[in-house]
Design brief:
Distance between the termini: 40 Å
CATH class: Mainly Beta
Low-confidence stretches: 1-57, 59-67
Mean pLDDT: 80
Number of strands: 34
CATH superfamily: TolB, C-terminal domain
Number of domains: 1
Number of helices: 1
Structural class: mainly beta
Strand order of the largest sheet: 3-2-11-12-13-14
Helix content: under 10%
CATH architecture: 6 Propeller
Length: 397
């Protein structure tokens, strides 16, 4: 592990207009406005890491029965109220993945082969975009108040991924690729927060599998915490507090999933990880830091891996039960955590919101909701299974 060092020349180099040879999943935990977090891109789960120092995927735990609830210092149950946001439809093909921060719109084609970044309305700015090179496609994408990030790679994770970073203020683009000082791993998790981009590096040829961060403003990168041999991590979600992620081991026939946080805005060599309090052993799925607490999800029944139960752990050890949700949809936007919830019985599908003290329903539908995508102070969602599939956006106050 090293102290911060300059990124490769490819990150420092500027290219105007179209980005040549760039190639749908999410940049997990992308940030909101210049200092707010936002989740981004397609409504699909994060891919798991694949490297010589980590198993190809975190296997489900052996038991398929429902887990016991958290046993931290007391669990209370939050009762949701309805507080719908003012939603507006997003123009464009609903089959594409569309994210807007109000000033810029990032569109990922439905086939994952091309992307386009356009100024919204009549605001200043040029249009950026590119097609994926042969054999590759867009794997993750994200937008916040300052940057847009598009990551491409191979579906099988056979080579390191590459991130194309567009600076919205300077209107220039650069790349983080295999020539970078902290080169991205293959099939990795990514998270954008403010001016920092987090991702995995190493894991090939006997090198440690580590958490790296790139400062997109200064063009410097750092490598911090590293996983033990044959261990891995995924579901990185950065915030204005600790960065959270899911770690897992290579135990066979089943691996153990553990939700952890890594303190500090920028990684430092030797940083330690801290397990999120209250999470049942080996059951964690995703975690996001919120002021004074951590919102996290667990999988109660491994035979129904897409259904999660959401909780919030406070610094005093107390745990709040926030109800059910859809796996890999936790997203922080502003000072709230959002997640999708499927229809149950007579209750419709919904977008849930937790602001640290109140649980509310931000949107309801008779169809299905994809992963909520945060960009600046906007939350974006895809609705399907209704008379008209569409994508919507609303300002988070």
């Amino acid at each position: 592990m090293t102290s911060p060092v300059p990124l490769s020349a490819t990150l420092r180099r500027t290219a105007w207009g179209l980005l040549a040879a760039l190639a749908l999943t999410a940049v997990a935990g992308c940030t909101g406005s210049d200092d707010q977090p936002e989740n981004a891109a397609a409504p699909q789960p994060e891919p798991s890491v694949a490297s010589s120092s980590a198993p190809a995927t975190p296997s489900p735990t052996a038991s398929a029965s429902a887990s016991q609830p958290p046993s931290a210092g007391g669990t209370t149950t939050a009762s949701p109220t309805t507080a719908l946001l003012a939603w507006k439809p997003l123009p464009g093909d609903p089959a594409d993945t569309i994210t807007t921060n109000g000033r810029w719109t990032l569109t990922i084609a439905a086939d994952g082969r091309s992307w386009r970044l356009t100024p919204a309305g009549k605001g200043p700015g040029r249009t950026f975009g590119a097609s994926a090179p042969r054999g590759e496609r867009i794997m993750k994408a994200g937008l916040n108040g300052s940057f847009a990030v598009v990551v491409y790679g191979t579906e099988a994770g056979t080579r390191p991924e590459t991130a194309a970073v567009t600076d919205l203020g300077r209107q220039r683009t650069s790349t983080i690729d295999a020539d970078a000082d902290a080169a991205p791993a293959s099939d990795t998790s990514w998270s954008l927060y403010g001016t920092h981009l987090w991702y995995a590096t190493g894991g090939q040829g006997g090198t440690p599998y580590c958490l790296a961060s790139a400062d997109l403003d200064t063009g410097r990168s750092a490598v911090g915490w590293c996983a033990d041999a044959h261990h891995g991590f995924t579901n990185i979600t950065a915030a204005d507090g600790p960065t959270a992620m899911m770690t897992f081991d290579d135990a066979r026939p089943t691996s153990c999933r553990t939700l952890v946080t890594v303190s500090g805005e920028a990684q430092r060599p030797g940083n330690e990880i801290t397990p999120v309090p209250g999470v049942p052993a080996c059951k964690g799925s995703q975690a996001v830091a919120l002021a004074g607490s951590t919102v996290w999800s667990m999988v109660p029944d491994e035979h129904r891996y897409q259904q999660i139960h959401v909780y919030a752990s406070a610094s005093d050890g107390g745990v709040t039960d926030l109800g059910l949700g859809v796996n890999n949809t936790l997203a922080r936007c502003g000072d709230s955590i959002f997640w999708a919830k499927n229809a149950t019985g007579s209750a419709p599908a919904a977008l849930m919101r937790w602001d640290g003290s109140a649980l509310t329903t931000a949107y309801e539908t008779k169809g299905f909701l994809g992963q909520p995508l945060c960009a600046g102070d906007r939350i974006n969602i895809a609705e399907s299974g209704t008379a008209r599939d569409r994508q919507l956006t609303a300002t988070v106050d």
